[in-house]
Amino acid sequence: MINPYLPLEAEVVERIQETPTIVTLRLRLTDPDARHRFYCAPGQFNMLYLYGVGEVPISIKSGPQSFLDQTLLLDHTIRAVGRVTRALVKLEPGDKLGVRGPYGRGWPLNQAGGKDVHIITGGLGCAPAVSVVHELLRQRSLYGRISIVQGVKHSDDLIWRDQYEHWAKQPDTHVLLAADQADASWRWHTGMVTGLLDQLALDTTRSLAMLCGPEPMMRASAERLIELGLAPEQIWLSMERNMQCAIGHCGHCQFGAAFVCKDGPVFNYPAVRALLGTRGF
């Protein structure tokens, strides 16, 4: 059994520069036994640790999802915004770091079978949703229509353009992109991501929505989906807070009566609706 208190050693096997401030690190656990026992659910996160620098929670972009999964690499996409993340993005292939996890409650795929799934993300909030898109497409016959809606502040901020184009070519899968500000080459929607929700062809009797990104964007999107007829219980949000222990002990990520690290990061919208936008939460 993997000890949740101790980081496992991992090696960087690939470093992908997504933008000047965003890097994807592809990791492999150095212990072969741990490598084959480590698997994660879409929407979970790891704590990445650098000796002498610190530890931060990072969403798992992709990784093994069962002991039968031979994808033994872990992808984490990191934006350089603080002391630890600025150090992480400087790592190169061959460098070592610590990995604790996986932690948290992921996306409710057990409730998505037979339903249309609408994934709505903003900014780098798309990273926690990438793993669920991969899983939906891996078992495509289990789900109905798939919509992937992504919004960014500026068109230059959109990463993984090739991936969105690949997804758009999959059966009954629709990709909608938006940028608040766009240059002349931008061929998608210019404006807020919420402006795309009316294009979802939403069947409210058989739809489930998964939202990830800045909280104002998620709140506005959830409320618009409710206006369009989707039940609040069919809306799920991935929340972010200052998580430090990842096991519900330190209290830094308390969100109402819940802890984001342990009870989330994915929450059903009715459980957090009253807290979003409330000072102190």
UniProtKB/TrEMBL annotation:
Ranges for domain FAD-binding FR-type: 5-109
MF terms in GO: 2 iron, 2 sulfur cluster binding; flavin adenine dinucleotide binding; metal ion binding; oxidoreductase activity
Cofactor binding summary note: Binds 1 [2Fe-2S] cluster per subunit.
Cited SUPFAM superfamilies: Ferredoxin reductase-like, C-terminal NADP-linked domain, Riboflavin synthase domain-like
Binding site for [2Fe-2S] cluster: 245, 250, 253, 261
Gene3D superfamilies xref list: Nucleotide-binding domain of ferredoxin-NADP reductase (FNR) module, Translation factors
Keywords: 2Fe-2S, Iron, Iron-sulfur, Metal-binding
Cofactor entry: [2Fe-2S] cluster
CDD domains cross-referenced by the UniProt entry: sulfite_reductase_like
Any one GO biological process: pyrimidine nucleotide biosynthetic process
Protein name: Cytochrome-c3 hydrogenase gamma chain
